[in-house]
Design goal:
This protein is an alpha+beta fold. 28% of the residues lie in helices and 24% in strands. The protein has a five-stranded antiparallel β-sheet, with helices on one face. It is globular and about 30 Å long.
């Protein structure tokens, strides 16, 4: 009997931010972006990327929380007017 333990592992990683990519890449990464529930995204980041959660101090109020989005391949967290592209 073979078990596939890796199927339940969720890998999320910070791929880039809006200030270190070209406008062409930004446009491509934002393609098809839809709003996402900020509280849900924040909790997912807390669970899977705790260092990013702590570094961005996401436990405090974020005035850009309504700008967060999701695409087929990325979660887009906006904090301090910077878009963080997190690979799903």
């Amino acid at each position: 009997m073979v078990f596939n333990y890796l199927k339940d592992i969720i890998i999320m990683k910070l791929e880039c931010t809006c200030y270190n990519i070209t406008i062409d890449k930004w446009n491509k990464m934002m393609e098809g972006a839809k709003p996402i529930n900020y509280k849900w995204l924040k909790n997912k980041i807390r669970k899977h990327i705790p260092t990013l959660y702590n570094d961005l101090a996401l436990d405090f109020y974020n005035p850009w929380q309504d700008k967060c989005k999701v695409t087929k391949t990325h979660y887009i967290l906006v904090s301090s007017a910077i878009e963080y592209f997190i690979k799903k």
